[in-house]
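User: Hey, quick favor. My workstation is busy. Could you predict this chain's structure for me?
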Amino acid sequence: MKAIIIDDERLARAELKKLLQDFPEIEVIDEAANAEEGVVKIESMHPDLIFLDIQMPGKTGFELLSELERTPQVIFTTAYDEFALKAFEVNALDYLLKPIEPKRLADAIQKLHTTEVKEGRLDAEFVNNSMLTELDQVFVKDGEKCWFVKLGDIRLFESVGNYAKVFFGTNKPLILKSLNALEDRLDEKSFFRANRKHIVNLRMIEKIEPYFNGGLLLDLKGGEKIEVSRRQTVKFKEMMSL
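Assistant: No problem, here it is.
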């Protein structure tokens, strides 16, 4: 897969090229230091993928994309997280914050192999099956509302039929994902299946109380009270004991 790196910082380009040496399937065919130069190289060399900075002298990365007739797959590389939602509005494959962590880059490259292609573009949803940690950021969309959320800020997942309600801050959007599918991707050191309907963030537990039938009652930071089933209570105590 041919790629072009577009970033006004020479050291950032060099560091990314160094990281990409671990991915032989990605061939960096050129670089560009600004949007105008990037447009010329994209239209002449037709890369499959671009690593694109957002804040650059002159035009931004978003303005670059608006000038292209054919848009390659895009992975944004930026020091700013406030553009994340807009990045997914333009169907970006991923959004990497500088300094780029090797694991996050590996996850982004994995999406190139696992994300389904729709109408010539990659779906912007996180549909791959890689393991997520509390440091990862996930894209959550519910109707017209979108969020880019650090997984560690999510305190609770609640099963609602074929959907899951995601609790973070004062928000409780629904996503089309089963609790079983979510559990398979969540780090068990951070997230615990309390019962048939709930997965809780262990760091969001404020208080633990004994409950009837040998279970436990968890008080979460958002005010939710979640019952731990008797069977899961045994597992919970084993996990939490010295």
